[in-house]
Specification:
The chain contains 10 helices and 9 strands. It is α/β, with parallel strands linked by helices. The strands form 2 sheets. It has a 6-stranded parallel sheet, sandwiched between helices. A 3-stranded antiparallel sheet has the order 7-8-9. Strand 3, helix 3 and strand 4 form a beta-alpha-beta unit.
């Protein structure tokens, strides 16, 4: 496994692989890898000749009061995991390599970024789209792997790829959970033991919504209230948002008739966690 921190050398490696006819899979990450990331890497290794993992904590997707400086990092552990899983290349640039001067060009997306996390984190998805565009241009992967826990990010990346004619296939990968149901996230490391227990309220509240849907409830507001009531039963939990949206447009729905995404963001102490599930409506 090679580890490269600059664009020039990385492109040379990629060009060699392309000239040899190898297919390339990319798993974009911000590091502090966990089993959720590992599931993406394993799939990429099965489906491609060569696999690149990018590890880059992207400063332009963090707001002024967010956790960029404190975001968890453990590069040695990340390298050990990638080596164990059969990764061929880690691209680990510094911020000055990716953004060597003032950033005058950004990639943004309309509508899909207006709701959910986009409404709460202004400029976040512009930062995401910009860095993913750069990664696609530098690494030119055939396939790129994204987790469904960040459902809005996944929808935005898929739309950006379609709108801008990127020659890459986006592969959605299922949410990986701890045994007790908590969705895996690098930010889980922020939680104290009591907060970790309290964080189970996210998956528990979504299970309440699933049960209601199974029983035939189709009024979105009714289901949202059930989720909110469940979350509010946990003293350490503060709701950021609870939304039921069309799975393609991410626009809020009143009556559930088409495919939907049920998405929540909850603060446990200072840690903001997200979770979701999708529903495909028959007929």
């Amino acid at each position: 496994m090679k580890t490269v921190d600059n664009i020039k050398d990385t492109r040379q490696i990629i060009n060699q692989w392309k000239n040899q006819g190898y297919t390339i899979g990319l798993v974009p990450t911000m590091g502090f890898l966990h089993d959720g990331h590992a599931s993406l890497i394993k799939r990429a290794c099965k489906e491609n000749d060569k696999v690149v993992v990018s590890i880059f904590v992207n400063p332009i997707q963090f707001g002024p009061n967010e956790d960029f400086e404190n975001y968890p990092r453990d590069f040695k552990k990340d390298c050990d995991l990638c080596r164990e899983l059969g990764v061929d290349l880690i691209f680990n640039p510094k911020a000055e390599e990716m953004y060597p001067s003032e950033i005058n060009t950004r990639v943004d997306i309309e509508k899909l970024g207006d709701n959910l996390c986009g409404a709460k984190r202004k400029g976040h998805f512009s930062g995401v789209c910009t860095v993913v565009t750069k990664l696609f241009n530098i690494l030119t992967p055939d396939k790129a792997y994204f987790g469904q826990k960040d459902a809005q990010q996944l929808a935005i990346i898929k739309k950006m790829v379609a709108d801008l004619n990127f020659n890459v296939e986006i592969i959605p990968c299922e949410i990986v959970r701890e045994d007790d149901g908590l969705a895996m996230s690098s930010r889980n490391s922020y939680l104290t033991e009591p907060q970790r227990k309290a964080a189970l309220i996210l998956s528990e509240s979504l299970n309440v919504a699933k049960e209601s849907l199974i029983k035939g409830e189709r009024n979105a507001e009714t289901i949202k209230k059930l989720i909110e009531q469940k979350i509010q039963s946990e003293p350490l939990a503060v709701i950021d948002y609870v939304e039921i949206v069309d799975s393609e447009t991410l626009v809020s729905v009143k009556e559930i008739s088409n495919d939907i995404l049920v998405a929540i963001a909850v603060k446990i102490g200072k840690t903001r966690l997200i979770d979701n599930f999708g529903v495909k409506m028959e007929g």
